[in-house]
UniProtKB/TrEMBL annotation, chain A:
It comes from Paenibacillus forsythiae. It is a multi-pass membrane protein. The chain crosses the membrane at residues 12-35, 72-94, 106-125, 156-177, 257-280. It is found in: Cell membrane. The keyword Mitochondrion does not apply. Its main location: membrane. InterPro entries: ABC_transporter_permease, MetI-like, MetI-like_sf. Residues 68-280 form the ABC transmembrane type-1 domain. Keywords: Cell membrane, Membrane, Transmembrane, Transmembrane helix, Transport. PANTHER family: ABC TRANSPORTER PERMEASE PROTEIN, INNER MEMBRANE ABC TRANSPORTER PERMEASE PROTEIN YCJO. Belongs to the binding-protein-dependent transport system permease family. This is Raffinose/stachyose/melibiose transport system permease protein. The lineage of its organism: Bacteria, Bacillati, Bacillota, Bacilli, Bacillales.
From TrEMBL, chain B:
PANTHER family: ABC TRANSPORTER PERMEASE PROTEIN MG189-RELATED, ABC TRANSPORTER PERMEASE PROTEIN MG189-RELATED-RELATED. It comes from the Bacteria. Keywords: Cell membrane, Membrane, Transmembrane, Transmembrane helix, Transport. Residues 70-261 form the ABC transmembrane type-1 domain. Its main location: membrane. It comes from Paenibacillus forsythiae. This is Raffinose/stachyose/melibiose transport system permease protein. Belongs to the binding-protein-dependent transport system permease family. The chain crosses the membrane at residues 12-32, 74-95, 102-127, 139-157, 240-261. It is found in: Cell membrane. SUPFAM superfamilies: MetI-like.
TrEMBL record, chain C:
The keyword Transmembrane helix does not apply. This is Raffinose/stachyose/melibiose transport system substrate-binding protein. Residues 1-23 form the signal peptide. Keywords: Signal. Pfam families: SBP_bac_8. Gene3D superfamilies: Periplasmic binding protein-like II. Coiled coil: none annotated.
Length: 291, 276, 425
């Protein structure tokens, strides 16, 4: 009994700062977003209530459909390509090969450099006239593949998406941290049994870091849904809106004084993200109970 | 058997080298670009500068007042990181180590915050900070950064705390630890890797944040380094090379902090481990 | 044990420290009560060509009004960020004391907010007479003047005579027929004729479209909205122009780089670009650049010599509670827009303004700026560009619709339809 009251005050005291900050910086703004999404408002003159009209307009909108599609592709690509690669690299680094500390730092570089510089470099790599990619294709005799990568209806979105998938530093950090907390005694026992390092990784490490992999998959999918700066700086959503994503569309609608539509997009994004988080957790929980 | 091991090693080396080249390239390009003239940069982005324009660095440092912005960034990012780590670990501790009815609901609500498009919340954040009377103060940025990353930090830290075996806690209870002692003496030290990981991300995002650094401040005394970087953008043209020089200067602390934080994780590893 | 305690106390100390520091910062900010402080978030700082002269003018004003009025400039050189901040301010009812905006189409929204000060009472005949005719056309809403037009932009043709000579062309073509013939020659000589772009806001191609629309539909073309057939016809010609540009035009978002590197021979752009030609153009580019009006369209309603011209920056004032402060703000605005000061900024930066000033023989006026000014004065009419004449949403959709047109996704009719749809939200 004494323990419960003690726990209760402690729990409330410990949760309170987080909940206060969350209420001020998330609940209140999200409430605002939802309310404005029900209005026709230019952000300047007085708003008018229109119910769900902003939403129904979105579902008939081609740019909205393209954006959703692009976001979902992005989310899946990050979860299914970037995260597995990050796991692979983390497992290799955990074997502590020569210079692994330096590698761990360098792999993270792309996340330290500001987006302005990285996107400008990739814009230059993809450039039709002087780009490295086309020069490379010419060099290996594939000049018929030369292309205005960011300016083609079919090639622009894959170009914007692909390069970042190989920057694995972010998830590598999370996974490496988790691997480092796996007890050495497991491996010692396995070594005595004659298991190779790869076998150990497969049978010991992976099952033990499953929770963290779930964390990474969730974060990867959420990242895919939130992409914005990369697209804005590389293509601005073009050509013909083919690389548009939800947050970019939202930002443009704010610029266009369409505050109602912009906030409806914000609401859609939050709901969509909630669904994704739930699904990922279900999947991983189901996998857990299988074991 | 031996051949297999050799092949495995070779493959591993190849993979690590490929990623090394791929991730190092942007950094090398950035440094190279920061030594060019703007015409060289736009005309031929991949040729080496001739001669290297070290003046870009002088220009970046002098004209953008980087020195004073630098100290603001340090203060704001460190405070936001420390505060965020503390608040998030406290919340994660309760949510991870105690089962109570509202727990899962609170956790689910908190983590939906990860996907809120923060850049779309300019109007509510501005109103909030003004109402609190914090406009144009460093505290406004510290609080905002602490809050923005809170869901992510709680998510990461709780994940690590979840994997602490219950026996350890019971041992602590037998030792006579109460709620608070258990947190400080048992849980925090053990989940240090998780806290440090979250802190790494928190530091970087505070360090690189621009939108709210601009929106919630107006005087030079409270502005951050990111404002200095945008100093080279103007309405019709951007001085990219000086901007890149400023970026190179600005990432030195990020890299340093990253290394320091990451070394924390490794010392955790040598101390012997808990997971199982 | 000690180490752990340190880990915990450190954040607490840092937090307290930062609260104290920020509190100190606030105290330092409040000045003496008698002095009126005017806050002016401005883009004319840092690397902007007007920065030095603008700073000098503010300094002079503050010295002349010492102890009474002080103008404090908040530096936000990045225009996109500036716009975000200004709009957030207006939406939340905290419009800055003075701010500027570029596109008159945006201004209309700001006027409607009710958060700007009505400047009508201050705009006497004497002040008004220092401005060009029609300068205030976009400055009023509901019969009240809410902004003071300031910087003016014209965007004639800039062309590289050296490259033209190489292709055997003398002078700039007078009609679009001649233009395409000349572009064929340039192309045959291995030179990309003109810069086009669909990245960013599609600026240069938007200017070509503006020239075409009014060359075909005449100066009154925007009166019928986007229903005028000239918009479709202009789209057809613009699509053809994309056969005469660089291979990276679709997606390109840097307006100037090709022209500066002599990779294209023609660029539509304004006086603010002159400084870059001088400083960044390779192989003495400046010496071979000339100015010309855009061609006329055979059978179109436009006249030869038409100029695209538009208010490039307007100044507005946030609503004030204190009448005295409002008067102080207007005093500064009058000072800033006085012919003497405008002349200083104009001659130093190359920018043009809607305020008239006399040039004497002793003044050194830049050659290309003079040519632009002459062309503008000789123009039968001056018409704003496309983006200033339509809603912000249509302007933002333009580069998207254009890339669709060029890549064959849209026909010229669908292109115009796409633009119209942007407005329906």
């Amino acid at each position: 009994m004494q323990r419960t009251t003690h726990f209760r005050t402690g729990a409330i005291l410990f949760l309170l700062p987080a909940l206060l900050l969350f209420a001020a910086f998330f609940l209140y703004p999200v409430g605002y977003v939802v309310i404005v999404s029900l209005m026709k408002w230019d952000g300047m003159s007085s708003p008018g209530f229109v119910g769900l009209r902003n939403y129904s307009a979105l579902f008939h909108d081609e740019v909205f459909r393209t954006s959703i599609r692009n976001n979902l592709i992005w989310a899946c690509a990050e979860a299914m390509i970037q995260v597995p690669l990050a796991i692979l690299v983390a497992l290799l680094l955990a074997r502590k090969p020569k210079g692994w500390k330096l590698l761990r730092t360098i792999y993270f570089f792309p996340h330290v450099i500001s987006g302005i510089a990285i996107t400008m470099m990739w814009g230059a790599i993809y450039n039709n006239e002087r780009g490295l990619l086309n020069s490379f294709l010419r060099l290996i005799g594939l000049s018929e593949w030369e292309h205005n990568w960011l300016g083609g209806l079919g090639s622009a979105f894959p170009s914007v998406l692909v390069y970042g998938l190989l920057y694995i530093g972010y998830f590598m950090v999370i996974i490496l941290a988790d691997i480092s907390s796996v007890s050495q005694s497991y491996y010692e026992a396995a070594s005595i049994d004659g298991a190779t390092r790869t076998q150990q990784d497969w049978h010991i490490t992976l099952p033990l870091i499953k929770g963290t992999v779930a964390t990474c998959v969730t974060l990867a999918m959420v990242n895919g849904l939130r992409q914005f700066e990369q697209v804005l700086l590389l293509t601005g959503g073009g050509p013909a809106n083919s690389t548009s994503v939800l947050v970019l569309y939202l930002y443009k609608e704010l610029q266009n004084f369409h505050y109602g539509t912009a906030n409806a997009l914000g609401t859609v994004l939050i709901v969509l993200g909630g669904l994704v988080i739930l699904t990922v957790r279900r999947l991983f929980n189901a996998a857990k109970s299988d074991m | 058997m031996k051949l297999n091991a050799l092949l495995e090693k070779l493959l591993s080396r190849t993979i690590l080298s490929l990623f090394l080249v791929y991730t190092l390239f942007p950094m090398l390009w950035l440094v190279m670009a920061s030594l060019k003239t703007n015409v060289e940069l736009l005309g031929d982005p991949f040729r080496f500068p001739s001669p290297p324009q070290f003046g870009n660095y002088v220009n970046a440092f002098k004209s953008a007042h980087l020195a004073s912005l630098f100290s603001n960034s340090i203060l704001i990012s460190f405070s936001a990181t420390a505060l965020n780590a503390l608040v998030a670990s406290m919340a994660a501790y309760v949510l991870s180590r105690y089962k109570f009815k509202l727990g899962p609901v609170i956790f689910s609500t908190l983590i939906t915050g990860i996907l809120v498009p923060v850049s779309a919340l300019m109007v509510p954040y501005f109103t909030l900070i003004r109402t609190l009377g914090l406009y144009d103060t460093k505290l406004a940025l510290i609080l905002t950064y602490t809050a923005i990353s809170l869901p992510l930090s709680v998510f990461i830290i709780k994940g690590f705390m979840d994997s602490i075996p219950g026996e350890l806690e019971e041992a602590a209870l037998l030792d006579g630890c109460d709620f608070y002692q258990k947190f400080f003496r048992v849980i925090v030290p053990i989940s240090r890797t998780g806290i440090v990981t979250a802190a790494t991300f928190q530091f970087l995002s505070s360090w690189n944040e621009f939108l709210y650094a601009m929106l919630l401040t107006s005087s030079e005394q409270v502005r951050t380094l990111q404002m200095g970087i945008r100093y080279f953008a103007s309405q019709f043209t951007t001085d990219f090379t000086s901007m890149f020089a400023a970026i190179v200067i600005s990432i030195i602390p990020s890299v340093a902090m990253y290394s320091v934080f990451q070394n924390q994780i490794i010392s955790g590893l040598t101390q012997g481990s808990v997971k199982g | 044990m000690n180490k752990r305690r340190l880990l915990l106390t450190l954040p607490a100390i840092l937090l307290i420290l930062s609260i104290l520091l920020s509190a100190c910062g606030e105290n330092a900010n409040s000045g003496e009560a008698s002095e009126i402080e005017i806050k002016f978030p401005s883009i004319w700082v840092a690397k902007d060509s007007k920065a030095a002269t603008f700073a000098q003018i503010v300094k002079d004003f503050n010295e002349q009004n010492q102890g009474k009025i002080k103008v404090v400039v908040e530096e936000i050189p990045d225009y996109a960020a500036y716009e975000d901040k200004i709009r957030t301010n207006i939406t939340t009812g905290t419009a800055p004391d003075i701010f500027s905006f570029d596109n008159p189409a945006d201004g209309e929204f700001y006027y409607k907010s009710g958060n700007l000060a009505d400047l009508t009472p201050y705009l006497d005949e004497q002040w008004k007479s220092t401005f060009l005719d029609h300068a205030f056309d976009n400055a009023a809403f509901d019969g009240k003047v809410y902004s003071i037009p300031f910087e003016f932009g014209v965007t004639p043709v800039l062309y590289n005579t050296k490259l033209f000579k190489q292709a055997g062309i003398a002078g700039f073509p007078k009609t679009y027929g001649e233009l395409f013939a000349a572009f064929d020659k340039l192309k045959a000589a291995g030179i990309a004729p003109a810069t086009q772009m669909t990245g960013g806001d599609g600026w240069v191609s938007m200017l070509w479209y503006s020239q075409l629309v009014s060359a075909i539909g005449g100066p009154d073309v925007y009166k019928h909205g986007l229903d005028d057939p000239a918009f479709v016809q202009a789209a057809e010609v613009l699509k053809k122009l994309f056969d005469y540009t660089t291979g990276d035009a679709v997606g390109l978002d840097n307006a100037g780089s090709h022209f500066l590197n002599q990779q294209t021979a023609v660029l539509l752009n304004g006086p603010w670009f002159i400084g870059r030609i001088k400083k960044e153009g390779i192989d003495h580019l400046y010496d071979s650049v000339e100015v010309a009006p855009a061609p006329v369209y055979e059978g179109g309603k436009g006249q030869p010599g038409q100029y695209i011209g538009f208010t490039q920056a307007s100044l507005a004032v946030g609503k004030q509670k204190d009448k005295k402060k409002e008067e102080a703000i207007v005093k500064f605005l009058k000072y800033l827009t006085s012919p003497d000061n405008v002349k200083k900024i104009s001659l130093d930066s190359g920018a043009l303004f809607v305020i008239k000033y006399e040039v004497t023989k002793d003044d050194t006026v830049e050659r290309l700026q003079t040519e632009m000014k002459k062309g503008m004065e000789a123009a039968p009419y001056i018409i704003p560009h496309f983006r200033a004449s339509v809603s912000p949403a249509v302007g933002a959709e333009f580069p998207q619709a254009l890339s669709g047109l060029v890549l064959g996704k849209y026909t010229p009719e669908q292109f115009v339809e796409q633009l119209k749809q942007a407005d329906s939200k």
